[in-house]
Design goal:
single chain; 311 residues; alpha/beta; four-stranded parallel beta sheet; 14 helices; binds 1,3-dihydroxyacetonephosphate; binds iron/sulfur cluster
Amino acid sequence: MQAKRIAGRKGHGDLAGRIRALKEERDAVILAHNYQVPEVQDLADLVGDSLELARAAATRDEAVIIFCGVDFMAETAAILSPEKTVLLPAGDACCPMAQMVTAGEVEVLRERYPGAAVVCYVNTTAEVKAASDICCTSANAVRVVRSLEEDRVIFVPDRNLALYTARFTEKEIIPWEGFCIVHDRITPEEVRKAKDRYPGAEVIVHPECRPGVIDLADQVSSTSGMVRHVCESPKETFVIGTEVGILYRMRKLCPGKRCVPLSPKAICANMKKTTPTMVIRALETMGPRITVPEETARGARAAIERMLSLQ
Ligand code: 13P
Ligand code: SF4
């Protein structure tokens, strides 16, 4: 058992060395989302939320971006940096919510609500982004909606994020009926039980959670916002209402804090697909590559860049 563990550790070290060499050879940067498995977070150059990763994709100098996350994140990187090679090591890692609205449906909404602005969550296809006026992430949805001149806003696809955003604006928000299959399952009952079990703990949830869960939370933020909050808060114990992968990041960056999952079943299978071996294979074979046709990318880029230009 002991020998096996040591061998495993050596194997991990060899992998890290191989990845370092390949990254240099390919002029590559590895970006990983906060929900990735620990071994992948550990080998990444940057771990962050969707907004931080999009900004990194737009500003890093490397010629190759290895995206450890899901399809829409790699697509966003490819849209922002068409001159770079963007690879998604787990080529089939997708976000089901991004498939819940189409560009055609956005056009129908525009006809139904003439004059309304269209905000799309970054968890969308490139085609939906191209059909929208501006993109947003969980970190800036409120800021994005407030930045608009229009009083009516169509918000796709996440109804929970739309309803959360509506709490902070006088504008009329028209939500689409999409949802995250992981966050939408978290229940107010789980929050009540966690509060009983950890009295005095702070409950932090993601805005993709249902309104009844948001109502009971002490704090609502993006995944990286959660990590920052845990590190900065004087509290010691935190109940975390999002995908459980974030706990590794929190324990690493905020070692003195106790972080427990609100729902241990909150696991995004797609975010768990990427492994260090897949990262190596991607660097060796330069695939699977994510590309977006320029006629779609042009419109999508305008929506994402409009978001990125907001401070
Ligand atoms: P963040 O942008 O907050 O990291 O969220 C991404 C996501 O997919 C949440 O489910
Ligand atoms: Fe999509 Fe939900 Fe997974 Fe995030 S956690 S990638 S929104 S399915």
